[in-house]
Amino acid sequence: MKRLRANDPCWCASGEKLKRCHGDRSALQRPPVRRGVPAALRSVPESIARPPYLATGGHPTGPSGRQVFDAAGLEAMRHAGRVAAQVLLDAGAEVRPGVTTAELNDIAHDSYVRQGAYPSTLGYRGFAHASCISVNEVACHGIPDSRPLADGDIVNIDITAFVDGYHGDTSATFAVGTINPAADALVAATCEATLAGIAAAQPGRTINEIGRAVEAVARPRGYGVVTMYGGHGIGTVFHAAPHIHHTAHPSATAKLVPGMTFTVEPMLTAGREDLVSWDDGWTEVTIDGLISAQFEHTVAVTADGVEILTVTDDGTSAVTWPNAVVTAAGAGR
Prior knowledge:
4 helices
């Protein structure tokens, strides 16, 4: 799908060119994120069950094929999803200017433990914290640290809970104080694209329908879609097949079947789609320094639609934005 270009009329019908309106680079670029001191290492009570990869130094072993569950397995996935949703709500509620990402990680850590869950990221492939927290141009895998959030920042908090042998994975982007309209529009579009991708995940369809739905929201508004990372199968395995492309990838022809569980988690960029890695081995930033946003849910394909698993008992989730619109049916519980 064609991406709106800088000299095209802005999608908002203002009459201005995109580069003078919602694509204004000066409004979409924040001061570069500076590294702080990484968050202190935290432990989890021994009474809380650990994921099996911790026994091998954080490196998963064994089969990681697609995750398809019966009724009992799906109920266990709902439980893990509810825990993850609550952790994300607890951490997100404390986002404000002056708070550090290390402090947000501590809030998330305590919420996991309070609910009897293990943070799936803690010790996974050497990652040392309970959450990934990514600010502004950091697209994903940000390490929680001593940098205080500033008014106008955007911050993604990525949570995965391991409970009773199953993982639930969710993330949301939050505004820090007051953000400008161009940043607000990017975050709203990312939330909308996530929900549109979920709504497209119907039984019998192919995986590339998810990416096509994401692109249909992002491209006409001039946003990039990161292709270096995508969603993934999840269940008793943290990262499993299939890879969920967030663009209409021609090879993504596998069909979605009832009981299948995976994540939908597009990252939209204000500028270029390429990412570069910091030398910490984790942090991924946009190559042009423009902001990026992401939302994520764990979902299950049902006999007649798709169910979002990473919500609380009453259906609440941090994966929301005031002016995002769900454009297709089937994205609810």
